[in-house]
Amino acid sequence: MKPVKLQYWILGWFSMALCCWCISDEFSQGDNQPHTWKKLFLAHHWPVTVCKMSANDCQDPPDYWTIHGLWPDKGEECNRTWHFNVTEIKDLMSDMRHYWPDVLHSSLNRTQFWKHEWDKHGTCATTLQALNSQKKYFGKALELYKHIDLNSCLLKAGIKPSSSYYRMTDIKEALTKFYGVTPKIQCLLPEEGEKAQTIGQIEFCFTKEFQLRNCTTLKGESDPVQHAMKLGTKELSICSDTLPTYYPSEVQDHK
Length: 255
Ligand SMILES: *[C@@H]1O[C@H](CO)[C@@H](O)[C@H](O)[C@H]1NC(C)=O
Ligand SMILES: *[C@@H]1O[C@H](CO)[C@@H](O)[C@H](O)[C@H]1NC(C)=O
Ligand SMILES: *[C@@H]1O[C@H](CO)[C@@H](O)[C@H](O)[C@H]1NC(C)=O
Ligand SMILES: *[C@@H]1O[C@H](CO)[C@@H](O)[C@H](O)[C@H]1NC(C)=O
Fold this sequence. Notes:
Layout: E1 40-45, H1 47-53, E2 66-72, H2 93-99, H3 111-125, H4 134-148, H5 150-156, E3 165-167, H6 168-179, E4 184-188, E5 197-206, E6 212-213, E7 230-231, E8 234-238, E9 244-246
One 2-acetamido-2-deoxy-beta-D-glucopyranose binds near residues 79, 81 and 82.
């Protein structure tokens, strides 16, 4: 697949209809079990885009998609007394450093990012026996990440960091064809003077049996938690199908 040139998109800018398959239609009713969740999001982020959101905090971001988190679709900070303990995951350390780095603050205490993810999401995932310890939770996230192997999928589809633009629908189609499910894709909106959105995050959804499923909400399910990631004034949101999409190879980009 070839990146498409910007000029094809000039008309498209004006129809900034945000894709709403995720924000959408089903507001669940009768969901009277506040702590039950139905699916897990495995979020990958593109380190270059994360760095673009907070340029002062980054040096040499990895040039592959890394893990942001494994998130139940419901609940946050479900058990404040279950403290993160890095010793519990010492056997996973080399994979954790490689696949789940703290892209920002790389020079600071690396374990803070993992602690944050555990406190906020991991403690909610533990209702599932397969995830009821820190080792199981982080280990499963790494396992799913390797299983998905997003980096090779994108390469096989010819989607590489580039200074040209992609069509969001092409990226979506390639992923859907490869995985049989539609992931949730988030972008950084164009800044002033920019024409394109920047791809930042790709989330795959899993059932409680760890089967891939669509991220769309089914009847009777709670609305997906909006895991917007905000850094300063910059925020990721569902990518638009109509804006040209930039997949940057470097933090300092063209305008
Ligand atoms: C919260 O975590 C503590 C410490 O691991 C545990 O003893 C307790 O059972 C947990 N509570 C719930 C509701 O899971
Ligand atoms: C952290 O986990 C290790 C290994 O399971 C355990 O020996 C240690 O007591 C724990 N530390 C705390 C503060 O709970
Ligand atoms: C790093 O963070 C962990 C978890 O919050 C903490 O236990 C550890 O003491 C910190 N290490 C340093 C060097 O600050
Ligand atoms: C996911 O959605 C696509 C398109 O909406 C559909 O064709 C496919 O069957 C769905 N897959 C699953 C596993 O539900």
